[in-house]
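Table S2 (text version). Query chain:
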Amino acid sequence: MLTRPAPDWVDVIRAWDGQRIRKVVRRARGAEWRRAEALPGRTVRNGSAEVRVFPPIPVDQWPRDLARLQVGGTELDDPTPAPVSAGTPLVLLSPDLELTAGKAMAQAAHAAQLGWRASDPADREAWADQDFDLAVRTATSSAWLRALATGAPVVHDAGFTEVAPGSQTAAAVLPWLGGWDSPSVGR
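Corresponding structure-token output:
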């Protein structure tokens, strides 16, 4: 069952959505993870993977235990990604941009958020019932053009870091939003 955001998150999320936003990804394990878990936020688990999300925080106000974390050393290159099952929600990363691991992760999360926001409550509930199953792939050129042509929610980067302002970095291809089922969507 879906739950509404905690009341103390609603205003900060609304303010965050109303401006050019920064999305930040970090990695932690061991004692660093336990310190991050002690901060206000929510943890999502899928198999052995855990992701923690925090209420939007201005970068200059980050708690020390988050500010010192890094994402360096995380490699995304998978020469044989698992096939995407028909009907699986998908985030496509632009084939035209070189993104670091942290940037790609942040863009994928933002695309998933945009897809969530574009979905109606029944589709959100169905996605929740599937434990928010989602595949992420770097798009082929033809899949990227198709995503743009079909109106998939697209992240337009603000240009704070690696890419030019307005760059289209990621798209959410969700079956219930007129997405398509294709095994050759990306790599």
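Notes on Table S2: Strands lie at 42-46, 49-53, 90-93, 135-138, 154-156, 168-173. The chain has a mean pLDDT of 82.
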